[in-house]
Write a structure and sequence with these properties.
CATH superfamily: Aldolase class I
Largest sheet: 8 strands, parallel, barrel
Distance between the termini: 25 Å
Number of strands: 12
Helix content: 40-55%
Radius of gyration: 19 Å
């Protein structure tokens, strides 16, 4: 799957992933009203609203970007109906040819980690049937429990030809409380990056990149530069661009000389673009057109770092 992701990045000349994080406040009022008229002000109504919103966003950007990243928490908050919308969103994105990165940040050990891996990336055995549940192409994982928590994902990835992105240095302001702690004179994120590179050696794609990727925030470019050297064959998923303060000018070290090696995420900067003054002329009724223009602007912005 890492080879397909890189192929699509090259074809579209767009190392961009759109985060599908549909908080209800991002969903235009007409969509909410229609969903609530059909399903009531219920969890089902909320799930219908975010599904219709997602569909509009995906239709608008699917020919521009190679991948999307639905954040599972935005769906889980609406319970079982929300998770049904999550599943429906994944299926629709794949129909449109998009690579799907499930932002699930799972991490546990033993049979629990295996169940997470199977549920999101693999197939679960039900009697004589082998069935996929959510069927994302990649999943984000938390390495805090060590190799015991990652290896079940590696096994499923090798079987299914899929991938993971391991949290290494996240974009949030308090990430340093743990990730920057020194161990034998070096920050923890460097030790994690080295382990990601080792895991990746077991799982190389045909194009020379591992399907064990890493999450490294755009808000810490100097750390990103160090981690790029530690993980030369790792695809870096870069959150924090735009709304969180990350700038295109800071992202050059995340990429390799071949122009690959990183894919940059924008969530509300694209899906809620119609709420920004820059795109206000589109209005809520044309939220998809606003998202499309924001995606085009992001792609153009990233090209300036070459």
């Amino acid at each position: 799957m890492i080879d397909r992701l890189n192929q699509r990045i090259r074809e579209l000349d767009a190392p961009v992933v759109v985060g599908l994080d549909p908080m209800l406040k991002y969903v235009p009022e007409p969509i909410q009203k229609q969903a609530f008229a059909e399903q009531g002000e219920t969890l089902e109504g909320a799930a219908e609203a975010i599904w219709q919103f997602n569909k509009g966003i995906v239709d608008a950007i699917c020919d521009l970007v190679p991948a999307v990243k639905p954040q599972v928490a935005m769906y889980e908050q609406f319970g079982v109906p929300g998770m049904a919308a999550y599943q429906k969103t994944i299926g629709y994105c794949k129909q449109k040819g998009l690579v799907v990165i499930g932002d699930v940040k799972r991490g546990d050990i033993g049979s629990t980690s295996e169940a997470y891996a199977v549920g999101h990336l693999g197939h679960v055995q039900v009697g004589s049937q082998s069935l996929s549940a959510f069927d994302e192409d990649f999943a984000t994982v938390n390495p805090y429990l060590g190799s015991d928590g990652i290896r079940p994902f590696l096994e499923v990835c090798q079987k299914e030809k899929k991938g993971i992105f391991v949290l290494v240095k996240t974009s949030n302001p308090s990430s340093g409380e743990f990730q920057d702690r020194l161990i034998d004179g070096r920050p923890l994120y460097e030790w994690v990056g080295e382990q990601v590179a080792r895991w990746g050696q077991e799982a190389m794609g045909e194009g020379g990149y591992s399907y064990v990727g890493a999450v490294v925030g755009a808000t810490y470019p100097e750390m990103g530069k160090v981690l790029r050297k530690i993980m030369p064959k790792t695809c870096i998923l870069v959150p924090g661009y735009g709304a969180q303060g990350g700038k295109a000018a800071d992202l050059a070290p995340y990429f390799n000389e071949d122009g690959l090696g990183a894919i940059v995420n924008s969530s509300r900067g694209i899906i809620a673009a119609y709420k920004q003054e820059k795109y206000a002329q589109f209005g809520p009724e044309h939220f998809g057109d606003a998202a499309r223009q924001a995606a085009l602007d992001m792609i153009a912005d990233l090209k300036t770092i070459r």
